[in-house]
Specification:
By secondary structure, this protein is an all-alpha fold. It is found in: Cell membrane.
Length: 311
């Protein structure tokens, strides 16, 4: 029987569907593991629902979130006395539909959460890799900078910066991102310290590969899972920060709809019209819990030390 040589194997045609099949198999494995985790499934469904609602808000919302109707001010939810199905969750002090405002508010929460995390992640990953890879004076300087940021609460940093700067969506995203990078820097630094001692990194350095290429090809791919987990969990804290700043009047500004603004407007009516603050508060709580559930599951899934005992 004639055997196939290595040269012949090298020229054998490659099935173009192999990559597609592997991708589908990985996706099936992902869904299977997700379905086995109760918290992961709940978190994924909440996040998926939030994304769909935010993306199709104009089609889903029954009313314009800024439409004022003085004839229907402070209408209660439909199940309460005086409530109607035309305004399922009631109206606010200006007659604006609460459900529509919550739906549109999800857009701001997602935009601020995702973009702020991207800014924080970019800064933190760069500083973390540089600090862990070079060590010495560079590491000491960056870590002292991290300690300085950690010594002051993030919300206080944001309040100071937003008081000086003009509040608004772009400013809010940049300020939250610039003040939230330290978590990435510390985590990525610790992993880079370990990775730089691996044999393949030493071999690349010996062969004359530049530091930038080593960090790009050998360090970053090995810290990607940590970046994903940190980013997912950071979105939850960012949404809380945005809501807090908007509640204080330093974040999103009217007429843009934000859950924090709704809470601020409803705090004066808690005793008489509880729904004004209750439903935005529930929206924040459910969203944050969903993101945390998904982040915790991703951490267990991507952590090599995980035993795969997701519940």
């Amino acid at each position: 029987m004639k055997s196939t040589s290595h040269a012949e194997l090298a020229v054998l045609p490659i099935d173009k569907n192999d990559r597609s099949i592997k991708s589908k198999n990985k996706f099936k494995i992902f869904l299977t593991k997700l379905s086995r985790s109760k918290t992961g499934s709940v978190g994924f469904l909440i996040v998926l629902t939030l994304c769909i609602v935010a993306l199709f808000a104009p089609a889903i919302a029954p009313y314009d979130p800024g439409k004022i109707d003085t004839t229907k001010m402070l209408a209660p939810p439909f199940w309460s006395d005086g409530g109607t199905m035309s305004h399922i969750l009631g109206t606010d002090n200006l007659g604006r539909d609460i459900l529509s405002r919550i739906i549109y508010g999800s857009r701001i929460s997602l935009v601020v959460g995702i973009l702020s995390v991207l800014v924080a992640g970019l800064i933190g990953v760069v500083f973390g890799v540089i600090s862990g890879y070079y060590g010495g004076i560079v590491d000491n300087f960056i870590m002292r900078l991290v300690d300085a940021f950690l010594s002051v609460p993030t919300i206080l940093f944001c309040i100071v910066f937003l008081t000086v700067l003009d509040p608004g969506l772009p400013t809010l995203i940049i300020v939250i991102g610039v003040t939230s990078w330290v978590l990435y820097a510390r985590m990525i630094r610790s992993e880079t310290l370990s990775l730089r001692e691996r044999e393949y990194v030493k071999a690349a350095r010996t062969m004359g590969v530049s530091d930038i290429q080593i960090m790009k090809r050998h360090i970053l791919p090995n810290v990607t899972s940590s970046i994903i987990v940190i980013s997912t969990l950071s979105v939850a804290s960012t949404i809380i920060t945005e809501s807090s700043l908007s509640f204080l009047g330093l974040g999103i500004q009217p007429p843009t709809v934000s859950w924090g603004i709704m809470l601020s407007e409803g705090k004066e009516y808690v005793a008489t019209s509880w729904w004004l603050a209750t439903f935005p508060g529930l929206a924040i709580t459910i969203t944050v819990l969903g993101i945390i559930f998904l982040g915790e599951w991703l951490r267990d899934l991507l952590d090599p030390r995980s035993q795969g005992t997701n519940s």
